[in-house]
Specification:
Elements (H helix, E strand, L loop, with lengths): L2 H32 L2 H8 L6 H19 L5 H15 L3 H22 L9 E4 L1 H13 L14 E5 L1 H35 L3 H32 L7 H11 L1 H26 L30
Antiparallel strand pairs: 1-2
């Protein structure tokens, strides 16, 4: 193959490899990060101490309890006291325990629905009895009065509607396949592009720069996704808490993006520096120096006297 078609083929393979790298990072983040209950719970656990998240949870709990207490003769007078009690509760160890248990239960229920071999067209629900038991245990451990009398009811709440669960299931299956094959495809395309190039050092440099560019674009995509997610929320009061949750869930993806940028720049810089280093050459003899011809080697038999 002539040099020009080889260079064109190398450029195409390198571009494909650099495009697949950020896509593989996103697929791996979803399948091996978000879809792991332990990692998800560990990422969400610190948010129990975040002030914005606690305020959002306290407001939601206060509104719910105020509605339940609104059947009395003076429903309006109960609101401030109920909300203050909810804010106080979010600063206890019982809230942290309930937060972790609720996140684990919700994540496990969603994951079972996404990985179901025979999916059913129904919403994803979670029973709050386990969360109530965990909170009750923590309150009793802290010697809160009448904590042992808290009733434990099997109350199911809807986490995902049926239609949305079906769409997420299809997307998860595609990402599950992509997370396993896209990294291999990216490596194969990159190696093939380097092998097909007439100037392989230049191809390595281009691969490194393309990888760094893919990581930078992934960082921009994460930032744009955060902005779009917060803009889609119904009201500004929920945005700080939602932003904290988004940042906690995308920490691994942002770290992977920065690693791609650093790795790509390191490879490109190393390739460029090796091309700039001086090469050692064999010194040529000075002009006018006669070449010394090698004398023919005589055999031992010819040197014997007759």
């Amino acid at each position: 193959m002539s040099p020009r078609p080889r260079d064109v083929l190398s450029a195409v393979l390198t571009a494909l490899a650099c495009l697949l790298v950020p896509c593989a990072a996103v697929a791996g983040w979803v399948v091996f990060g978000l879809a792991d209950t332990g990692r998800y719970t560990a990422a969400m656990a610190p948010l129990a101490g975040d002030e914005q998240v606690r305020e959002a949870v306290a407001d939601a709990m206060g509104d719910g309890l105020a509605r339940e207490a609104g059947t009395g003769p003076h429903p309006g007078s109960m609101g401030p006291f109920v909300r203050d009690a909810a804010r106080s509760f979010t600063r206890t160890e019982a809230f942290r325990a309930g937060w972790d248990t609720a996140n684990r239960a919700v994540h496990a229920a969603v994951l079972r629905a996404l990985r179901a071999e025979r999916p059913e067209h129904r919403p994803v629900t979670v029973d709050l009895a386990r969360v109530t038991v965990r909170v009750k245990e923590e309150l009793a451990r802290d010697h809160v009065p009448f904590a042992h009398r808290i009733p434990v009811r099997h109350t199911e709440i809807t986490v995902l509607p049926a239609a949305r669960a079906d769409r997420l299931r299809e997307g998860y299956r595609m990402l599950d396949v992509a997370a396993r094959w896209l990294p291999c495809a990216a490596v194969v395309f990159a190696l093939a592009g380097i092998a097909a190039a007439t100037r392989r050092r230049r191809a390595i440099t281009a691969t490194g720069l393309g990888t760094a560019l893919g990581g930078a674009l992934l960082l921009l995509a994460v930032a744009a996704g955060r902005r779009l997610t917060l803009t889609a929320l119904p009201g500004p009061p929920r945005r700080p808490a939602a932003g904290a949750v988004y940042d906690a869930l995308t920490t691994t993806l942002r770290t992977a993006s920065w690693l791609l940028v650093a790795l790509g720049l390191a490879v490109a810089l190393a390739s460029w520096l090796t091309g700039r280093l001086p090469h050692r050459r064999t010194p040529s003899p000075p002009a006018g120096t006669p070449a010394v011809a090698a004398a023919p080697r005589s055999s031992p038999s010819s040197s014997l006297p007759p």
